[in-house]
Design brief:
Blueprint lengths: L13 H13 L3 H21 L11 H5 L5 H38 L4 H13 L2 H12 L6 H24 L3 H9 L4 H37 L8 H10 L3 H29 L14
Length: 287
């Protein structure tokens, strides 16, 4: 009599295995992925600097760039230059976003203005800043040395915020608007009580993208001749003229850090103003 055989358990389907791996990856904190990405970038950068570009020195080694972050004199000069650039970018960010939000509200209240508003938004987005920048620098003149920086910063964030604000305003639930009007509220009350609140998540999403864009616009204007002598744009020009690769890479990293801080600041404000979009579960009873 033959011994009974035990059937082997069926192997998990490939789809199930992939799902399990994906579920395991989802449990990893987001900062771990960011840290891995940074490590990979630094490793590739270091290898390229000591192999492909060792002779030309176009790509400096990471230690030569990081050393500048520990140079006190370098930091004082950088802070002096960054203060002017950040100030111009912040002013342009303010004016560009205010103009975009006002335009979105006007389109919502006066629909006949929508074709004109769309043309304005598209024109500000399609005009190359490199082409219009020198013209704005000349028009601003010496009376307003940072005028072009403010204008280019405003243009850089106008389209993004206008689209985000308009989409958010139009996403308001129609039933809530009808309820406000049923209780005697007018268009302005519906705008304040329903549409502006509903537009906040989309608006802040656009504002987060607009922050680095405004900073980039300000640096571009300075690179084209705006802002005076104490700016990051002028510091980049000086390093480029001297073929100082470590200094150029250092200034590029500083600019990236400032842009990231701008994005982070707006993200924190968005979490404080619109906590319901954070995705956090609120315990029952508020405890």
């Amino acid at each position: 009599m033959a011994a009974p055989t035990i059937a082997a358990a069926p192997a998990a389907a490939p789809e199930e295995q992939a799902r399990r791996r994906f579920a395991a990856l989802r449990g990893i904190p987001p900062w771990v992925g960011g840290l891995i990405g940074i490590v990979v970038i630094v490793v590739v950068w270091w290898i390229a600097s000591v192999t492909l570009y060792q002779g030309s020195g176009a790509i400096p080694t990471p230690p030569s760039v990081v050393a500048k972050f520990f140079d006190a004199a370098q930091w004082r000069a950088t802070l002096n230059n960054a203060s002017g650039t950040v100030g111009s970018a912040a002013l342009g960010y303010l004016w560009g976003n205010v103009g975009a939000i006002v335009l979105a509200i006007l389109v919502l209240l006066i629909p006949v203005l929508e074709p004109l508003a769309n043309q304005i938004a598209v024109v500000t987005y399609c005009i190359p800043l490199v082409a219009v920048g020198p013209v704005i620098v000349i028009v601003s003149g010496r009376d307003a040395p940072s005028g072009a920086s403010v204008v280019l910063a405003a243009l850089s964030c106008f389209f993004t915020t206008a689209v985000g604000a308009l989409l958010g305003l139009r996403a308001a639930p129609r039933t809530s608007i009808d309820l406000v009007k049923a209780y005697g509220g007018g268009t302005w009350m519906a705008l304040r009580k329903v549409q502006l609140i509903s537009a906040l998540p989309a608006l802040f999403a656009a504002l987060k993208i607009a922050a680095p864009a405004a900073f980039l616009g300000a640096i571009l204007a300075e690179y084209l001749g705006s802002g005076g002598d104490s700016t990051l744009g002028r510091a980049i020009i000086a390093a480029q003229t001297q073929s100082n690769a470590p200094q150029l890479w250092y200034l590029a990293l500083v600019s990236g850090i400032i842009s990231g801080v701008g994005f982070l600041v707006v993200s924190v404000v968005a979490r404080l103003v619109t906590p319901w979009t954070s995705g956090a579960d609120v315990p029952a009873g508020g405890r």
